[in-house]
Amino acid sequence: MTEEAIEKENAAITKAYKELLKVSYTTLTDDDKKLIRKAFEVAVDGHKNQRRKSGEAYIFHPIAVAKIVAQEIGLDATSIAAALLHDVVEDSPDYDIADIENQFGKTVATIVDGLTKISSLSKEKDMNVSLQAENFRKMLLTLNDDVRVIIIKIADRLHNMQTMDSMRSDKQEKIASETLYIYSPLAHRIGLYNIKTQLEDLSLKYTEPDVYNDILFKIKESKEEQDLYISQFSEVIKNSLDKENLAYTIKGRPKSIFSIRKKMLKQGVSFDEVYDKFAVRIIYASDPSTEKFLAWKIYSIVTDHFRPNPIRLRDWISSPKSTGYEALHITVMGPKGRWVEVQIRSERMNEIAEKGYAAHYKYKQEGEKEDNLENWINKLQEALENPETNAVDFVEQFKLNLYSKEIFVFTPAGELKSLPKGATSLDFAFNIHTEVGMKTRGAKVNGKLVPLNHVLESGDQVDILTSESAKPNPNWLDYATTARARTKIKSALREDKKRIAEEGKEILRRKLKQLKVNLNEASVNELVNFFKLKTSLDLFYRVGIGTIDNNMLKDYASSRSNALMSFIKSKISRKTTVKKEEIERDEITTNYDSLVFGKEEEKLDYKLSSCCNPIPGDDVFGFLTVSEGIKVHKKNCPNALSLQSNYAYRIMQAKWADSSQQEFSAQIKITGIDHIGLVNDVTKVISENMHVNMKSISFESDGGLFSGKINLVVKNNTLLKKLLDKLKKINGIDKVTRV
Length: 739
Description:
There is one protein chain. The protein contains 30 helices and 20 strands. By secondary structure, the chain is α+β, with helices and mostly antiparallel strands. It folds into five domains: 3-207, Hypothetical protein af1432, CATH 1.10.3210.10; 220-355, Beta Polymerase, domain 2 (2-Layer Sandwich); 492-560, no CATH class; 595-656, no CATH class; 664-738, Alpha-Beta Plaits (2-Layer Sandwich). The radius of gyration is 31 Å and the shape is globular. Keywords: Coiled coil, Kinase, Transferase. It comes from Mariniflexile fucanivorans. One of its GO terms (molecular function) is kinase activity.
């Protein structure tokens, strides 16, 4: 670099640092500024020889992360300093954790150490275990050290997502999938809604660029019309709000690209058919004493002018979400007959919604009990305390509980408990205490006896009946939905299985002795193979419960005594197996030769995944399974995100080559208004299309509306799309979608 370029870069670094101090959400004291300055100088020195893939000096990254931490999340000077230093120990040989502790104290060192551990998590693991899920689990374990570790890691991921343009496309897709799979749910759970939205939109930009750009263009196109609508809506209620002498602001907020895409997929509608593409937010100033009263007063004013939808009222003021979110959400019929979501929040509620728990701490009253974040960390630690839990299962359960909506139920003493929607009476038992859960024999809901799989609803009062003789059984896993209950039940069942297996081992030793066979490592391995089991534990357990009996063991002993015959038989069967495999492979090659894999566009054996049924023309990828070779999935398959994030090393690029000779199954769903001759019109359109065959058709009519499912055989996606377009034009048909 020339001297002039270096000077210019140094000036840009100084400017970025000054901006960081300006945008800080908390008031910085002189000591705070000294701490941040010192951290900045160490970061500049630690990264002096580093550059990012885009070519810019690496120091811009920690400054940007610190800026997100300061401005968007609103953390303190300690966190800003830790954000500036988050990569120093990992990237610079001149600094270690001891140096950071000497210069910045124990707290900053703990946070930096936690961030360094996350970055350097070992990747040398059993290939069958998901690296990402295992890393995520370890990342959550750092909550033990300091929750700010996770918050800064989320800020780090946000900046990486904002600056990914110079990366290879496969790397972009992997990082984006991982972000959707892990970081956006985590940001949601900590209450960082703004960051969660940004992470989701940026992820969509790289996982489905065409979809992202299409929605973005349409949002920009309709912005002027949307702004006009919001101003018309606001004008109607402004006078009434002003009469009450309220200090307030009204602003329209477009829904995120990701949430619009989600609605389009869930409801099977186009962009234009998504009715709530934006929300109107009313933010009012108030004292803590009048905050709740004013929210309902504004609700009353809005509903005086616009008719509310009674089933769309969400009161998160009386019962805040477990993330700390408080607001009143109502959906009203606005001008031009359009539904509009109105969010009513005080300035305090708005800050907590946007900044998450940092704002919650700011508003925390003296003597207030432990807050939701500490509660959450305690629950998380319980789920993590069992080291045997499979990492992928853990992540899936964790995400399941993150995204589910909440219900509020009461104990017999009237204490309010929060559970995920869909929770059962058994989940409630474990929520009270593990010991209560383990000894549950029944439950009463609102005074009536109910089964353990009874799904609870908000407002239920639940009384758990216990017994000393009760204990978990495998059916309980079908009854429980929360991560906590399932973890405890699995743990208890494992212990039970081990106890039975120990008894089974002794029974097996005695029975084999009668058959003149010694129980040793060799005979155990032979038995496991003979009964087609996976582990010795499975073998001992089956003997313990009696599913492997005396006759079966005699069969094993006789096969063992005739070892020579067994050897010859196995040689013969191996040959027939090889022949069978060759035949199957030939069938695969002749019937499905239209896909090519990787940059070299090789033709490889594969199977089409049954979870999404891809057909030629669909965007697809290959996934290398452990036992079934390559399986092909659609890119928007429900399982795609999890596979791409967890098993990126097993993903193969795939695309359709010449597919003119093959045929594939697809199913379409049709809904509309029933009339005489409609079925005839539908079948006529399909039969007139030379390249589409109809395998089965079923129609139902109810109250003048009909719905139908048609199974077709088509050659590719383009032909299917043409057929869907033709069907949509039939009089009376409302929607035609591919299942």
